[in-house]
Each structure stands twice: as C-alpha cells, then as structure tokens.
Amino acid sequence: MPPLFGSLNHAYRGASSDFMGPDPSFISTSANNGEREHFISSITTNVTSFFREKHHFDLLTEKILADSNDVKRSLNIWSAGCSSGQEPYSIAMCLLQALPDLAARTQILATDIDVAILRKAEVGIYTRKELMALPPAFLGRSFFSSIRNAQSDEMQLQHKIRNMVKFQNLNLNSSWAMPVQFDIIFCRNVAIYFSQTTQERLWRRFVTALRPGGWLLIGHAERIPPELHSILRPNGMTAYQKIS
Ligand SMILES: C[S@@+](CC[C@H](N)C(=O)[O-])C[C@H]1O[C@@H](n2cnc3c(N)ncnc32)[C@H](O)[C@@H]1O
Asked: Which of 26, 30, 134, 222 is 20 to 30 A (C-alpha) from 240?
C-alpha cells in the first residue's frame, strides 16, 4: 500500500484536553510516553464489535460501494476511533466480499488515540466469541485462520484483510491534517464523549476531510446538528453526505 497516510500527526502530542473522560492535563506536561500511553489506555472506552450497527455496513455494500464501483481512482476510507480493529476490518471484509476489484484499489486508514488498543488491532487476533458477531455470510468465508496452538480459543485475520488496513495513532482533537480527501469516514461512538463545542468542531473538520459527495457515518447516539445540514445532508440512519 502506498504510504499515503504517512504524514499524519501523532495523537497525543499537543493533545487538547477535550477527549474521552476527565481532563488529563498532565498528559502533555509531566508524563513520559509510556505513562501517557498507559493513562490514555486506562481512561478510554474501547467497546466495539464486528459489524456493530450493521445498517451502516448494509448501506456501505448496497449503496456507497455499489455507486463507487465505476470510479477508476482509488477509494479512501477512514475509521476514526477504530478501537481494536473490528470496525475497519468489517469494512475490509465487506469490500472483499462484494467488490474485490474495488477492494484492490481501496485504502483504509484506521486511527485511535489509544496506542495499546492499536497494537491489538494490528495483530488481528480475536476470540471465537468475538467472531460470533460476524454475519453468517462472512463466517463461512476464509477470512480467518486458526492459531497454531490447538488449545487456543482465538483466530487470526488473514494477511489479505490485515494488509488492507493501515493503523495510525491519532488524537482527533489534535491539530491533524489529512493528505487525502476521504470517500467515507466512519466515526462512531467516539464524539459522544466530547463536549458539544468539540463535537461541532470535529464535524466541520470532517467536512474538510471529505470529498464532495463523501459520506460521514456516526454512532447511534450521535447527531449532526441541524445548522450543519446545509453542508452535511442527512441521508439514512446516522448517515450524512457532504454536499457536492
Ligand atoms: C467506544 S470505542 C468505538 C469503536 C468503534 N468506532 C465502534 O463504534 O465500534 C471509542 C474509541 O474512540 C477512541 N477515542 C476516544 N477519544 C479519542 C480521541 N480524542 N481521538 C481518537 N480516538 C479517540 C477510544 O480510544 C476508543 O477506542
């Protein structure tokens, strides 16, 4: 995969205090990197699952990807606040399952503030219980391999899926700038922990990070306020499209 996303800022350096949980002001002052990582990891909520809020994956396959199939350029997708990787890997599986040709020219960036959870995501090992969330059509596919230890209750995502996702450490409230515009941004169950002001700033920054006509998919308890609907048009359940 070309290093398209190589120039991202790293998350917690210069972090704003408005991220999940209380104000961790010492993060950017006294703590060393290890302490910072540990502290961030201890206060973040990493709950996630494969195909969480499945209606977004139906929308992805049936409408967004289907409409993009004729596009000759590469497709850029961002999973912002990706936790342990189930969200970007679900996106990758949808692509491979529905449109393998498009999958070959799609780049999936997955970012999170929590370095420890990104390490887990990169390895792509999940328990059989975690895999129960996969729709039957995906369980039957050869996307996972058993781990050598026969006692193990875990499976690992195959290289062909893992290689589709590029993980990076990023605090959404730091001063990031993206080197590309995205066709789709998933930012689900992340901004709910931010203040209204920080949420609105983030939505506006996502508008800049999206291509005209690009999609922003957010969590079930999150909403884009009506005053932004002239730039982010509601188009489905917690789905918004940047006005072209
Ligand atoms: C509840 S999980 C949601 C995971 C996934 N998006 C989903 O809906 O299943 C929230 C994730 O957001 C991350 N997060 C919280 N604050 C963040 C910030 N300021 N920048 C980037 N990621 C953040 C957490 O580390 C956590 O992994």
From this structure: 134
